[in-house]
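Hi D.,

Good news: the full-assembly prediction came through. Inputs first.
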Amino acid sequence: MRKVIAIILGKIAKQVLKRRDGGSAYPGALAKKICPDILEVLIRPKLIVAVTATNGKTSTATIITNMLSQNGYTVGFNSSGTNTDNGVITLLIDSCNLKGQVVKDALVLEVDERHTKEVFKHLQPDYLIIGNITRDQAPRNGHLDVVMTAMKQALNDNMHLIVNGDDPLINKLTLNHKGKITYYGVSKNEASYVKARVTNLDIAYCPKCHARLEFKYFHYSNTGDYLCPNGDFKRPKIDYEATKINYRYKHFYINDQIKLPMQNDILFHIYNTMAAFTLSQLIGLKPEDVIASLKNLSFSIIRFEKLKLDNRPCTVLSCKNETPNSYDQSLLYIKRHREKKTVVMGFNRVCSRYTWSDLGWLWDADFEVLKDSNIDKIVCVGKFAYDVATRLIYAGINTDDIIICQTLDQAIKIIRKKTKGPIYAALNFDIVRQFATEVKEVTL
Amino acid sequence: MKIVIAHLYYDLMNLYGESGNVKALKKYLEEQGVKVTIKFLSLNDTMDFATYDFVYIGAGSENNRLLVLKDLKRYQKDIKRFIDENKFILATGNAHEIFGQYIIDLNHKKHKALSIFDYYAKDVDFRIVDEVYFETPLVKKPLIGFQNQASILRDNPHPLFTVIMGVGSYPNSKTEGFRYHNFYGTYITGPLLIRNPHFTKYLVKTILKNKYPDYKYKNINKNIEETAYRNFTKHLLSIKQ
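Then the structure:
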């Protein structure tokens, strides 16, 4: 009875909220209050896929949802960024009938790394995709040991893990996993590099014997091909590897055999696509059907947008403050495009989740990449523009090439008047949309 | 003029952008015309304290801190001499715990520390996270920064700071940090020498006067860093109200 009441009230709450603003985990919180074991008493669909990662959860889950839908599945997905346990309950309540039976063929759950433990205790996925683990939101997470300990408690041997084999921290996390693991990865390509760019890798030592890890190459941060000199730990054999990556013509191959299209030329998008492709092969989809669904991918990737500002190409790269890797990817993307260019960086809030303004992460991100990226000017914008400018000076950027402004309005005026070349805007989530909107307005 | 900086356990004690501190020190010293060498050293590396002028260690996970303590015990006597000879150590975040009497972990196990100073540290089952606004008589303006730790420091005879905002050495403490001769320890994490140009200037003057008594400080334009400091101070005071 409690179950039915929880479902009904949850569904009503969801409808009411949908009319107001959409994404909220409140219906789930309400249902859990009425029926604390709600996750256990609902009847599961035949396929549950969970996605967790520091970066790219939403993109990966969206690609998977799209792929499954186009291959005949009905799919429920907590797509509004509600990736905590209450968010997952909200999704289930929305996807079930009054008997508590989930009426979709599949559920795709995007789950915050530290909430995996809570969610999986009650609702275990058939497949768990782990995309990457890296330092993120230190005031909330403390450090990676805290995150990894929580994630370790979430795993059990009945889950089939689909993991990024290039990330040594995921390998460390899954060392004792006795269940199935399928690895995906990215092969060495034109953007890989051999010498570590930073001294503060998230993992520098073998988790078994504490010998210093050796890297054959890096894709970014500590992601790449690594091994322990004593043979205790290494990049696993990759089951599905992205090879022959061609950023220019936007395609790559799986194990040199199956050609896949790319919506854009971002490395991270390849990783997300590889996660989805690997899943597709484990659940028996045909490669050609998967490729068709990837071509029809209709979502706009939140991280990335190509605009024009006065006939100059303007690439908008959303970055996540407090996640140095998110900046590193944008910076390496900027470097890969060799023409003389203008870069815009900044934010008004360090984090939307809390009022603290911790700025340490600025020194963990590899802004040094910009030093040899053929830059005309870098425009620093927002409340912390002087902190960003300080970081850039230390990264080796000439003070004369740095322009500081307080508002986006001012920044766009200055970009139009005083800078040259294509524009790359590596802005935090808090101002990136506003920037894109203003660029569109002045270009109209 | 020549200064050798040893950045110890750079690859283990580096949680919150600590690498910025050594970069700041190097830049400020070079602007004074000093030739700076940085030695990056870690587990099992040979260390020669007699050749260093300045030692830096940053914040690490609770586990890595104990790993580092174990490794550093090889040089307990050298470190003690280094401090007695008025040479410089800056230990930020939980790194300064290593120099005390012992560290008690969450399982109540007591790990004997370097036992150079009287304080001891204890791990707690919550994290202490806060903005920092700390005063010290060494410089005119307070220091800004952040603290993020799962341990506390007790029995501290020589605090470095008075707490204006922030948690301090333990919940509701009025003081924070530790100073003895030229040893500076603090729970402030991350790039404090970047964010507090006035304190870095003080350190650089003290380091150089100590080694080269005739040295005169050259004024360098730090407008961008100083504006960042001023803006942040304003921001801090506005959220306090």
